[in-house]
Amino acid sequence: MPDAIISPNQSYKVEFSSYEVRMSHWIDQPHLIRIADNQTLFSLAGDVWSAFTTIWVDDATVRMQVAKYPGRISCTLHLNTATDSGTATGSAGSFSGSLADVQRWVLNL
Question: Domain range holding 98?
């Protein structure tokens, strides 16, 4: 994964903490950050979640495909920084709420 994927209006970025869990098996943990004050708004740190695709849909909404290593649980995240809301949809069901609520839900899978 690249160092950061910046939103179209350059207000937000998704950074990745990358580390190797086994030979040639890498985890790219995503962190959604507001650039103005370097505030982390969403993060999957603390567990073995990895982002596979990260795309800014618009200035405030990012879509990520993530999976929990070793890949048996996965979901698609839609995170909207303007409304502090998000959804997670995938193999474990669906959930909608604030960014913090979605973060907790995913980390508890």
Answer: 4-107
